[in-house]
Amino acid sequence: IGIVMINHFFSLIFILLALSSCDSDKTEVNPAQSKAHYDLATELAQYSLYENALEEFKLAIKFDPNNVKAYRKKGLVHFGLRQYVEAEKLFKKAISIDPENVQAYVNLGMVKYSTGDKAEAKKLWEQSINIKTDDNDSKAINNIANLYKEEKNYTKAIEYYRLASNKDPSNSMYLNNLANTLRLSGKVDQAVNVLQDSLKLNSVGVGTYFNLGLVYKDLKENKKALDFFKKSIQVNPALTEAHFQIAQIFLAMKNRDAALKSIEKAIEFSPTNQTYQELREKILAL
């Protein structure tokens, strides 16, 4: 770690101690103090210091009980830690303070989805879309598209992915989701065109390379498929599904050694994956 980074952490700790000392049972509303704690909390969260971040969000709320951003961001930390009950309470509190907080509805929908209530998740995401016409609700639209994709309702999924992409044209993930659904619905040429647009937005997009690999695998163009899967691994060596796809292609090409090497790499990153283990046994039996 460089000297600047070390000094930054020391200053961060100093601020943390100084601000935490302001805590008392009789706290007056102080928006400036609340913002200071909120800013520190968000920075701590970026460094994965989640427990410290939660304490600072708690202080931000104590100094300003109407700090809606603190409730929502604290909820996001709990959500990331899979503490869904606490996350749900905080997102609901944010909505009670600001009933037009689009992102709080999106976040609450993610809690519902993660706990298995997909119907309620969809309802919340639809609510978020209808709250404001000038807000970026593309995340909610993309999430609804994901639900339709899970249901294999590809027509509706494609419609919503296109809508999400139109709302946020710079988001390559939406294009990748659209392309993958086009591929699954048999519209391979359209999928390739969309992925080429995605590469223009993000020339090192691991998802784009991976999806291009899937497209060319479906087209039985193994060399192109291998090239794109390998490019996705260059960006993210731990992309286990790319190693798995490469193993399948080498197996189809009757290259046993290369197939075995690729599937063992996938298992190295994901040793409990039963599908990977089964493919390895199949290769070893040849």
TL;DR?
With 286 residues, the chain is an all-alpha fold. Among the domains are: 68 residues, Tetratricopeptide repeat domain (Serine Threonine Protein Phosphatase 5, Tetratricopeptide repeat, Alpha Horseshoe); 71 residues, Tetratricopeptide repeat domain (Serine Threonine Protein Phosphatase 5, Tetratricopeptide repeat). The model has no long low-confidence stretch (mean pLDDT 91).
Describe this entry's structure for a reader:
The protein is mostly helical and 286 residues long. Among the domains are: 68 residues, Alpha Horseshoe (Serine Threonine Protein Phosphatase 5, Tetratricopeptide repeat), CATH 1.25.40; 71 residues, Tetratricopeptide repeat domain (Serine Threonine Protein Phosphatase 5, Tetratricopeptide repeat, Alpha Horseshoe). It has 16 helices and no strands. Helix 2 runs antiparallel to helix 3 and helix 12 runs antiparallel to helix 13. The mean pLDDT is 91. InterPro entries: TPR-like_helical_dom_sf, TPR_rpt.
Defining key terms:
Serine Threonine Protein Phosphatase 5, Tetratricopeptide repeat, mainly alpha, 16 helices, elongated, 77% helix, 286 residues
SSE topology sketch:
Layout: H1 3-20, H2 31-46, H3 50-63, H4 68-80, H5 84-97, H6 102-114, H7 118-131, H8 138-150, H9 154-167, H10 172-184, H11 188-201, H12 206-218, H13 222-235, H14 240-252, H15 256-269, H16 274-284
Q: Write the element-wise H/E pattern from the N-terminal end onward.
A: HHHHHHHHHHHHHHHH
What is the percentage of strand-forming residues?
under 5%
CATH class of the domain at 207-212 and 221-285: Mainly Alpha
Q: Provide the structure class.
A: mainly alpha
- Averaged pLDDT: 91
- The rounded distance between the terminal residues' Cα atoms is 49 Å
Shape: elongated
| Total helical elements | 16
Radius of gyration: 23 Å
Percent range of helical residues: over 70%
Number of strands: 0
CATH topology of the domain at 207-212 and 221-285, which one? Serine Threonine Protein Phosphatase 5, Tetratricopeptide repeat
- In CATH, the homologous superfamily of the domain at 207-212 and 221-285 goes by the name Tetratricopeptide repeat domain
The unreliable regions are: none
